[in-house]
Amino acid sequence: MVLESFLVGEGDVPTVMLHGFLGTGRNLRSLAAAWSAADPSRRILLPDLTGHGTSPALPANSDLYSMARDVVDTARAQGFQGPFDWVGHSLGGRVTLAASLNVPEAVRSVSLLDIAPGPVPGDLSESGKVLGILLQAPAQAENRRAMRAELTGRGLSEPLADWLLMNLVTEESGVRWRFDRQGLAGLHSRVNDTDLWTAVERKDRPPMRCLRGGRSKYVSDADVERLVAAGCPVETLPEAGHFVHVDAPQAVLAWLR
């Protein structure tokens, strides 16, 4: 399946950057542009993952492995040949690890942004809390302001509400959600339950590294110990939360370079 995507940079080093759950490729546009400006050798693909943004809807029982294949199909359609560098935030990082297992010929290196390979406990999943509020919201509303009020009235912060509103489609009767909320709920459960430690701990894996936010709980100290023992270095940005690329963009750029 070919996904909606756009390219940043005109270099000859193929690179894929993948967003997190409920996001789109636009979430990483600023980071990609800064990276391309600092390293013109990069040609960076930013897709909307399957079921996200304006990409095709989720097929039944989609999982991390099928999503990884969709990313590879999209990269090939854009002219990417051979293996390429993968950078993934949150869900995007888990798709990246799945790609290293399922389509290893397309993976030259893996850079994880605040995500660990193990299953994500439900009480640590910020995306799960946002999803719960999203599922309570109506399928459509008179306008964006009305839908924003529905979200904030259920306890969602204004910045997160505005972020979700990027997924609204405007029609004559008002606005509606672009994505399949129930399909994403099923996907969320499947991808969070997947154990991907094999991707890191096998002997024939590509180079891997991880950057975590010091204020985030997604990569625990135990995860760090296990990652480092497997030869996957971990760097911590003390003041950053889960969205490391938003909280500390210059530090993330320096780490990527």
From TrEMBL:
<dbReference type="Pfam" id="PF12697">
    <property type="entry name" value="Abhydrolase_6"/>
</dbReference>
<dbReference type="InterPro" id="IPR000073">
    <property type="entry name" value="AB_hydrolase_1"/>
</dbReference>
<protein>
    <recommendedName>
        <fullName>AB hydrolase-1 domain-containing protein</fullName>
    </recommendedName>
</protein>
<keyword id="KW-0378">Hydrolase</keyword>
<feature type="domain" description="AB hydrolase-1">
    <location>
        <begin position="16"/>
        <end position="254"/>
    </location>
</feature>
<dbReference type="GO" id="GO:0016787">
    <property type="term" value="F:hydrolase activity"/>
</dbReference>
<dbReference type="InterPro" id="IPR029058">
    <property type="entry name" value="AB_hydrolase_fold"/>
</dbReference>
